[in-house]
Design goal:
The protein is α/β, with parallel strands linked by helices. It is about 35% helix and about 25% strand. Helix 4 packs across helix 9 and helix 5 packs parallel to helix 6.
Length: about 325
């Protein structure tokens, strides 16, 4: 999902009241964890999610009332109803939710966040909630870049919520054919910053790749070699033939990319491996880190199924890295 605060900046361009709802505490089993956010207007949900269902419906009602009263609030929502309850939430946990009815006050903070992330620099969004009374709270926000001095606004009777924010992982797709087009669609939907590379302008264009963030029409190998690949980069190689696949792979096989996957049959991969080792283009270890044949083994046949298997593998690798504490 696209960063909720960047979505919020987009919605600020329209003249309508906005409420930002954020889960600031979560315990037990809950639909979403702390940090999940949703944007509401008087007409309903605009973007993001708190997990859907009764929790989100209740937040929408409270956001509508809060906007009407122009008063922010913090409240708890329990998901501990008995299984026999017709309408209750039964996950078993509980959440504490902040509804901020004046997010425009912190537009500069969100712009700083957006600028940092666009530069590939992570940071922390700091939210200080001073609890004057159950019906009156004061909210302060600050953007703290990595390495900056810690925010020192905490005080008795207040809540301090820290949200680490990271740049979107970069997905580079070598090949703008049918599979590349489908993977670009899914990559955008799954929260990657998508770049598609091809040397054919009739394939690599905005009409076919409307959901790509960037489109590069150039020699595929040279374009991949020139791309700023880092540990936050995922590369999918799905060009129109094995020669172009080899060019793309040579350009990135020794990179720091978190993921390099190449489409092809087992036979093709074996032949490619022999060629790379024989020519000295890669070591055994370097080639063996390549995900080839690409995608999870779900017996995919159609373009759409192959794209799903690739997207699932991208998510799997990204999640494994996150679980190890290496945020990609």
């Amino acid at each position: 999902m696209r960063n909720i605060y960047i979505q919020l900046l987009d919605w600020m361009e329209q003249r309508q009241p906005l409420a930002l709802a954020t889960i600031i505490e979560a315990s037990g089993s809950t639909p979403q964890k702390a940090g999940a956010s949703a944007i509401f207007s008087p007409r309903g949900l605009l973007g993001g999610t708190l997990g859907g269902g009764l929790l989100e419906a209740d937040a929408e009602r409270k956001a509508w009332r809060a906007l009407k009263r122009k008063t922010s609030l913090v409240y708890e929502f329990g998901l501990q109803e008995d299984i026999s309850a017709e309408d209750g939430a039964i996950c078993g946990g509980k959440v504490k939710i902040l509804i901020d009815v004046s997010p425009r006050k912190y537009k500069k903070v969100f712009l700083d966040l957006k600028e940092s992330l666009s530069e590939g620099k992570p940071g922390i969004l700091v939210t200080l909630i001073q609890m004057g009374s159950p019906k009156k709270i004061v909210i302060s926000r600050a953007w703290q870049k990595k390495g900056q001095k810690s925010f020192s606004g905490d005080r008795p009777g207040s809540l301090l919520f820290l949200e680490p924010q990271f740049p979107l992982p970069k997905l580079v797709i070598a090949g703008a054919g049918h599979i590349g087009q489908a993977v670009a669609h899914l990559g955008n939907w799954l929260g990657f910053e998508v770049t598609v590379v091809d040397d054919r302008a009739e394939f690599a264009n905005r009409k076919r790749l409307s959901e790509a963030d960037s489109i590069i029409v150039d020699d595929i190998g040279q374009a991949i070699q020139s791309f700023p690949v880092d540990p936050n980069t995922y590369i999918v190689i799905a060009t129109r033939g094995h020669a172009k696949d080899a060019e793309a792979l040579r350009a990135c096989i020794r990179s720091q990319a978190a993921y390099v996957g190449m489409i092809g049959s087992h036979r093709k991969v074996c032949l490619m491996r022999e060629k790379f080792l024989k020519e000295g283009w890669a070591t055994y270890d370097e080639f063996d880190r390549i995900y080839a044949p690409i995608g999870l083994p779900i017996h995919s046949k159609t373009v759409e199924e192959i794209a799903v298997s690739i997207a699932a593998q991208l998510v799997q690798v990204r999640q494994q890295a996150n679980e190890k504490g290496i945020l990609k």
